[in-house]
Write a structure and sequence with these properties.
209 residues; alpha/beta; six-stranded mixed beta sheet; 6 strands; disordered N terminus
């Protein structure tokens, strides 16, 4: 097989390694390690923000790199996070009017964070008849009445701006269910808060009206 590098170029490479310290095998120990991903050569953190950078807001610690929030008319972008235990938060998908939701890669625009925590759940009836056509695995789903606590916080300071609890009845059996071997059976199902209810709750803070 023909080499992708010609012999003359290899010869010049040998000369370059001999003349430039630190390029040879072993290198210059004083040069230090390369900066980690997301960190600049000066040791500064990357300017890019992710959803996980805002989880601390739900725990009471502001995100100083968030956009400043000043109450009043206009659109104040909001990021919605959810938790089952009040400690670990992840992204929550909520359908909101155009322009309301802050989203990656523009999370530095975030002024507000909505923290949704499932406070309690009461088991109800069990739904049967779920099956994976490919594997033949069958499972059931147990419905729950759920209670969620929603909190709106200032993203930069973590100040609580508003709170509301939602009681969501179990409702009917879900049309779709996904199951993994490591999940319990019956699989627990917690009905979400309706998008319309979330919109009404956050509207005064997002729009200032």
């Amino acid at each position: 097989m023909t080499s992708l590098v010609s012999l003359p170029r290899l010869a010049w490479l040998v000369v370059l390694l001999a003349l430039v310290p630190g390029l040879a095998c072993g290198g210059d120990e004083s040069a230090g390690d390369a900066p980690a991903e997301g960190v600049s050569a000066a040791g500064e953190a990357s300017d890019e923000l992710f959803d996980s950078d805002y989880a601390q807001v739900c725990r009471g610690t502001g995100q100083p790199r968030a956009a400043a929030y000043t109450p009043g008319p206009g659109i104040h972008p909001v990021l919605t996070l959810r938790s089952d235990d009040g400690a670990s938060f992840s992204t929550s998908i909520a359908t909101l009017p155009d322009g309301w939701a802050a989203a990656w890669p523009d999370l530095e625009r975030t002024e507000l964070v909505v923290c949704a925590v499932r406070r309690s759940a009461t088991p109800g009836r069990v739904c049967d008849g779920y099956k994976d056509d490919d594997t033949g695995v069958e499972w059931s789903v147990q419905l729950h009445d759920a209670v969620y606590d929603y909190t709106v916080r200032n993203a930069q300071t973590a100040e609580v701006l508003g709170e509301k609890s939602f009681e969501v009845p179990a409702g009917s059996c879900p049309m779709l269910s996904f199951f993994d071997d490591d999940e319990p059976s019956p699989q627990p199902y917690y009905p979400p808060v309706a998008d319309g209810q979330v919109e009404l709750f956050v509207r005064p803070f997002v729009t200032g009206a």
